[in-house]
Amino acid sequence: MTMTHQIFQRLIEEARSPNPMRVAVCHPCSDVALQGAVDAARAQLIAPVLVGPPARIQLCACQAGIDISPYPLVATEHSHASAARAVALCRSGDCAALMKGSLHTDEFMRAILQADTGLRTARRVSHVFAMAVPTYPRLLLITDAAINIYPGLADKMDIVQNAIELSQALGVAEPRVAILSAVELVNPKIVSTLDAAALCKMADRGQIRGGVLDGPLAFDNAINAEAAALKGIISPVAGRADILLVPDVESGNMLAKQLEYLANAETAGVVLGARVPVILTSRADSAATRLASCAVAIKFARARLAQPRVL
Questions:
Q1: How far apart are CA 228 and CA 226, in angstroms?
Q2: Tell me, what CATH number does 215's domain have?
Q3: Domain containing 199: what range?
Q4: What pTM was estimated for this model as a whole?
Q5: Is 126 contained in some domain?
Q6: Does residue 103 have a pLDDT over 50?
């Protein structure tokens, strides 16, 4: 068994329960989306509540040979209604997490972010990739590579806090956060270096809690201790980062996909900052990725229930 497989297998084993949490599965009208939800249920990770047009879901299940008879089905007419109803199930507390099916991500997220009927909190919503990289000795969280396009300083504060809380839920008591840029020195011409310096000071003042921050750090110095030493960087984070905060969605998305496709990293993805964790997978994701994403979301949901906080 490879190290990467061991990391995700451990997460899945820890998330299993004979009484799994109810998860609203929004519009699972494709074989991939439906199979992912059923696989997670069979693995005792979630208790899926299928939300969508019954005829389409049943036809999909029949064509793919998937037995959905054990799972409740909440009827809706179309994808827009599916998103609204799935969000409502989470808003009411009936479901503890939300899982994207075969509808478009923009439509899905729009329902989540509705001011009056959605799942918004005071916290900025952000996405975290949890990555098991064969050449790295620990789980690596990358944020934000999917939601916030060009986050400002206030956005990054929430993005970091979301990732810290996820890392803690996954078993890292005090995660090390590397704030990435192209260089290690503060340069007034590079905004990401200014943001990094400000975020570190915000952590010093207690505006960001639970982690150890350092930056700006280039990618090599964040994950390789020898590279950091050659640059003369003395840091509790350099070479040992648990979390990588990227400057923008372009750099984050490219970094995550490079690790997945060039370094054979296994991935899981979750959206945080809403009332419940959101399992956001894509059509290209493997079955292992879908299971790992469910495990990550469930562990976070349990941690939230164990330590409730005011929204």
A1: 5
A2: 3.40.718.10
A3: 122-273
A4: 0.93
A5: yes
A6: yes
